[in-house]
Write a structure and sequence with these properties.
The chain is mainly α. It has one domain. The protein has helices at residues 3-25, 29-58, 67-97. The longest helix is centred in the C-terminal third of the chain and has 31 residues, at 67-97. Keywords: Membrane, Transmembrane, Transmembrane helix.
C-alpha cells in the first residue's frame, strides 16, 4: 500500500472511530461534532508521525532538496512566465490599438 493511501485510510478510520465513540458518549450534536473532529485530527497527527518515521527508515539518504534540480526547474518556469507575460502584453497592445466601431 502506498504511504499516501495508508494516511488517507487512517484518517477515514479515525473519523469513523471518533464518530462512533462520540455518539456513544455524547447526547448533544455539538459535542458529537467536536469529539469527531478531535479524534480525526488526533489520528491524522499520529499517522503523520509514524509515516515520517517510516520514510526516515525507508529513504535515509535521500535528499529532500536537490538544489541543481530545483534551480533547473525554476529557470524553466521563469522562461515560461516571461514568454506568457510577453504574449499577454502583445494581446493587451492589440486590444488597446483596436478601433471599435459603434453603430
Amino acid at each position: 500500500m502506498k504511504l499516501e493511501n495508508f494516511i488517507n485510510f487512517s484518517i477515514v478510520g479515525g473519523f469513523f472511530i471518533g464518530l462512533i465513540l462520540s455518539l456513544l458518549k455524547f447526547d448533544q450534536p455539538e459535542f458529537v461534532l467536536f469529539g469527531t473532529l478531535v479524534a480525526t485530527v488526533g489520528f491524522y497527527l499520529i499517522i503523520l508521525f509514524f509515516a515520517s518515521i517510516y520514510m526516515g527508515f525507508v529513504n535515509p539518504r535521500k535528499k529532500f532538496l536537490n538544489k541543481a534540480e530545483l534551480e533547473r526547474r525554476l529557470v524553466y518556469f521563469n522562461k515560461e512566465f516571461t514568454q506568457r507575460e510577453k504574449e499577454i502584453d502583445d494581446l493587451l497592445k492589440y486590444v488597446h490599438t483596436y478601433e471599435f466601431d459603434e453603430g
